[in-house]
Every structure is written in structure tokens, then in C-alpha cells.
Amino acid sequence: MGSITTTPSSSVQVAAPATAKRILALDALRGLAVMGMILVVSPGSWGHRLPMLDHAPWHGYTLADLVFPAFLFAVGAAMALGFPNDRSIGQHAGRVGRRTLSLIGLGLLLNLLPSFDFTSLRIPGVLQRIGVCYVLAATIILALANRSGSTLHMNNKGLVLATGALLIGWILVLTFTSAPGYPAGSVTPAGTLAAWVDRQVFTVAHLWPYGTDAAGKVVYDPEGLLASFPATANVLIGAIFAHWLGRAPSNRQLKLGIAAGFALVCIGHLLDPLFVINKRIWTSSFAIVSSGWAAIAYCVLFFVLYAAAGRKILQPVLILGGNAIFAFILSQVFLAYSGTPIGDTSPQNFGFQVALSVVGNPWAASLLCAFGIVTIVTLLVWPLNRKGIFIRL
Questions:
Q1: Which residue ranges does the record assign to the Heparan-alpha-glucosaminide N-acetyltransferase catalytic domain (predicted)?
Q2: HSE-up of 378 (CA within 13 Å, CB side)?
């Protein structure tokens, strides 16, 4: 299913970012993304989530909506940092295929928890989308790669064009198509071609149960099939940025990277009146805005981690990022069983009541519970990082 790579644990804890085998800024970005995912899905009370940790109801975005795109950006960055390399296309294909199937399989297994009810199994999901975007991005990167002898090199110019094609193509799809019975350009929950395709391919019983319309009918899934194409643009943008920055970027490169990220954020917002920012549909404007914020975070993390104090402060984030997929899986297991009845309560409600007795304010108590889950997951992952063990699919 996966592989375990081992490096000296000191390389994560004390080595300088420019010389460490692992790219600390990349680990930190992944760690922040996983931490964000946990905070979003682990409140003590679903009725007391801070607005920034709750997804936008439809159009627009919150901090919670930027978490998953940041992880996809990190996926692309990790792919780019593996170039140049001397693997054959066949070796790449086997590696990509194994990782893709592992991600999708694990995602389906997590969706089966806690009851293992196949009749209502949600087929799309976060890990499934990561797997689909990964295989699409890898295919594009390999197809466009330049070869020098037996060595493959990233083709950044080609990737810029491919990214533009994905984003423009999605604009055209959303503008000129719709679900049957809806006007062209509909961006309602049930009205997009993407929502219709998911209903036909997966059937309503196997979609996200909260993807409803105003009448309460399940009509879409935020991790559906067609929207994986614009989400792949986030992966490619991460690859482009990471390849350009390299493993030890200069201060000038990082400043230019921050400026480029800010430009993407501005472009996405300028497009918003024409092509709305919407995470659930993963509109092109959302892909651009979210990639911009991820690029800014990635560059800023290099600056922060150059300092020993920064590495010390961000150590929990680095722990999560070093084994990001494993940490995410642990958090999803906790989520799956958080509502399981135990006597007249549940683990989630019990934790909320304990937190409420400590802080009094229900909003603060709910957030405290979420950070409690972050702490538990971090402590469970920490022994692996101490031993220099990094689990990869």
C-alpha cells in the first residue's frame, strides 16, 4: 500500500532549511493544511463553529475553504521537487498508479466508517480528490516534461499553458453548459453540469449527504468528478511555484513569489463579478484565489523557518506535515466515531461539556475541543517523526 522512508530525525528538528533533506516550508504548509482540516471538522459543537472555520454556504470563501487547496498546492510542490530524475516512464506510471489507488481506496474505507454501510457509501471524498488530481497532474507533468538523455526535466512553460487551459476550459463549461432543465451558466447547487454528472455516475445515495438544495434534496458533491479538473490546476500551480523556487530559494525569489501569489489573489477577485468564487463548484476564480494564498503561505514559511525560533514555534506543524496523510486519516477516524452513542452522550458531546465547564463560553469551548483533537493527533504522530519515519503512500 505504501512505503516508509527513514531519515535522521535531527534533519527535521535542527537542520537549516537550505541544507535539510526535507523541505521544511513544504512540511509546514502540509502541516498547516492538515491542522486546518482537523479544526474544521472537529468542533465540540457543530452549532458553535467560528465563521472562519465554517465553509462558505455557497459563493465566496472563508479560511476553511482555503485549507484543502493549500494541501493540493503542496502535492504539486512535492512532485516538482522530485525533478530532475532518471526514472523511466514505466517506473513513473507504476508509482503514480499505486499512489492513486491507495489514496482512493483509503478514502473509500474512511467513508465507510463507522457503520460500513455500502448502500449509503459516499464515493467521492477528500482523499479520492487528492488521488484524482494527483494522477491528472502527474500525467500532464510527465507528458510535457523535457528529456535530456535519460533524465526528465520539468517544463514550466508548458505547465503554465496547461494550467491556463484547465482554468479557461472550466470557465467555458460552467458558462455554456448546465444540468438538463436548467439554463446555461447555472451555478446553483443542482444546476451545474458537474452536479448532474455526479448524480448520474455515483447516484444520489452515494453523494455527500449535506450537498443539498433549498428543498433539502441531495443534488451535488463538493469533491465530485468534473470539478477535479480545475482542482488539478491548484496542484500544477504548486508544482510551478516549487520548481521555480527550488529547494533553497533566495530572499529575492521569495519576495517575488509573495508578489506573484498576491497577484493571483487579485486576479481571482477581479474575475469574481463574472465568474463567481465558489469552492463547492471549484470555480476557476476560486482555484486562482486559493492558489495565490497557498503560494503566499509557502513563501512566508521559508522566511519564518530560516530562524531557529520559527522552527521551534512551528514544531507541531512540522510534525503534522511530516506525516500529513497519516495525520489526516487519524483525524477522520476520530470524526467518524465522534457521534457514536456512549450511554446518554457521545465522545464529541462529552468533550464539549468538559471544555464548557473549563471556559464557560460555548464558542471558546467548541474551539478548545478542536484544538484538543489537533493535539491528540500530533502526539500520536510525534513518535514517528522523532524516529525519522515518514509514511508515504
A1: 22-255
A2: 21
